[in-house]
Input
Amino acid sequence: MKKLILLIILIVSLNASFLEERKWQKGETLLSFLQKNDIPSSLYYSLDKEDKELVSEIIAGTVIDILRDEYTGGIEQVLIPVTDELQIHIYKDKGGKYALRMIPIIYDKKREIVKLEVKRSPYQDIVDKTGSNALAKEFLEAFKGSINFRRSIKKGDKIVIIYDQKYRLGKRFSEPVIHAAMVEENKREHYIFLADDGKYYDEKGRSLVTDSFITPCRYTRISSRFTRKRWHPILHRYRAHLGIDYAAPRGTPVKAAYDGRVIFKGRKGGYGNVIEIAHKGGYKTLYAHLSGFKRGLKVRKRVRKGEIIGYVGSTGLSTGNHLHFGLYKNNRAINPAKKIVLAKRLSGKERRKFLKLVKTYKKEIDKAISDTLLALNYEK
Output
């Protein structure tokens, strides 16, 4: 990416070109983008079914970069992020014809520490301190199994968060990842730590989550697993699959993976017949390639975890009967396996490795608290 940006800057300086930054519009598709900008639609139609599914995942509001010719306004290059790891690169080849490829997103990842005392509310104080609503939401979500923030947290209680944040071209990119955090409740310290399985545990390796998503259907095998970026050794290009494919006979009942509200029911490009359900905590699930919907299921209808919503099929761009199941947090795809499989307590090598991390992070948290206290005493 850095080399690509340098190349763009060089092109801008040598040729009369300018760089435009704009957001992907709601309802916009790659095909409509190509047609609107006089780029051959064949770039889309030549994609295989997996890549057509992938480009349908471009989220409204995603910032895209367009290099245009200053005189004609025509597009020279485009960068369109699709996942946290991959982006579409549209460019002109040596013959002056448009080409399309998937390339990795190069970003800077910074380890950051937030330390504060509660003044208004944990959520608002975190936003005021960092400017990140996403971090505040993730903090409350991580502790939801152990802390009642409305009743228990009082003014003056301390909060420390250690997290990673990605930056693309100097701006926040993607969701923050909390690795460790502490919050006081009645002068008692509560901790959460992120383990290798992507779930949060307390300092003894016990899971804080008492409820989880369920597998949405009975299946014979998993035909494709979740990946944001993988170099295909045969095709020699990057691929991504933002969900889990469960191979199952046509007509197999599909169930809601968690309580929620239906926000979409209908056709959606290569996904064929689709149902989308919004859940608490900023989560959304997607059920694709369905042969049909449960009778009476309507948009805005509330459904319960385990309730039948549709049936396995092969509609859209599909070569066989299966359910494509996607899970999203704040409109970003995450691995459904991390939310479906729930470990109550870590054990063995996994636990020993986790406890080493706990020891390291607790030292960092204690240091952050002591530094804050020293600063406060100095100010007095």
